[in-house]
Amino acid sequence: MRLSWNVAGAFTIGSAVSLTLAAFVYPGTLGASAASSSHDAVIAQTQWGPLTESDRDFVVKVRAAGLWEYPVGKIGLQKGTTEAVVTASQHLVDGHSALDATCRKIAPMLNITLPNVASPQQQGFVFTLTADNGEQFDTDFANILRMTHGSIFNTVAKIRSTTKNTLVRALADQANDTVLDHITVMEKTGLVDFEQTLAKQTTPPTLPSSDLTPPPPTFGQPMVVLTPPPSATSTPVDIDAITGGGAAGGAARSSSLPTG
User: Fold this and answer.
1) What is the pLDDT of residues 61-86, one digit of tens each?
2) What is the spatial distance between Cα 146 and Cα 134, in angstroms, rounded to a whole number?
3) Could you give phi then psi for residue 49, rounded to 5 degrees?
C-alpha cells in the first residue's frame, strides 16, 4: 500500500525528527549547526547534578513527543482496523501519559519550561493520521510511529550515557523502556516498510528549525495534562524516592503493556 505520510511534501520526515527532538533550545530556537557547538554546555548547577542544554532539550522533547503521540494513540483506538494497531495505540496512550507525568514533575525542579503544543512538523503527523481511514490509516500509523521512535532511540541512549543529572537520567531510563516498547509494537503490526522507513529515518532534514520546535506556552495558560488510561500499567518515575521526598529507593521504571 502507498505510504502517504509526506502530506504533499509539507512535513518531510526522517532525520528531521532527530532535530525536532535534539537540535533546539527551548523556548528559543537554534539551527542545527549552532546547537551542535554548545549543546554540552552546562546551563545550571542543581542539587541533582549539572544541567546541560542537551539535558534540558531532552526533557522538552519527551514532553513534545507525548503532545502528538498521545492523541495519535487515541485516534488509533478509534480508527485501527487490526488488533495489533489497536494494541499499539494503547501502548502510546499508556506510555506517554506516564512519561508526561515524569516530565511535569521534574521540569519545575530544573527550571525548565515545557511546551503545551507539539511542533508544526509533529502536528503535521497528527493531521495526516486524522485524515486517514481504513488500511491507509493502519499503514501510515505503523510507519510514521516506527520512524519517529527509531529516530529518538539513539538520542535517548546518548542522554542516558552522558548526563550527570540524576533526574534527567531517571527520565532517560523510563524513555528508553517506553521507546523500545513502542518500536516493538509498531513492528508487530506487520505493516512497517523497513526499507522506506529507515531511509526516511536517515535522510538529512529539509525543514526550517521553526517547524521543528514546539511554540512556548501562552502566559497563564493551564498546563496540558496527558491523562493515564483507566487500565494504565506504565508508571511515572518515583521522583520523591530519588530526591528523598518519599520512601528510599530508586526510580520506578516504566513497565510495559504485554506486546502480545
Assistant:
1) 999 999 999 999 999 999 999 999 99
2) 19
3) 115, 165
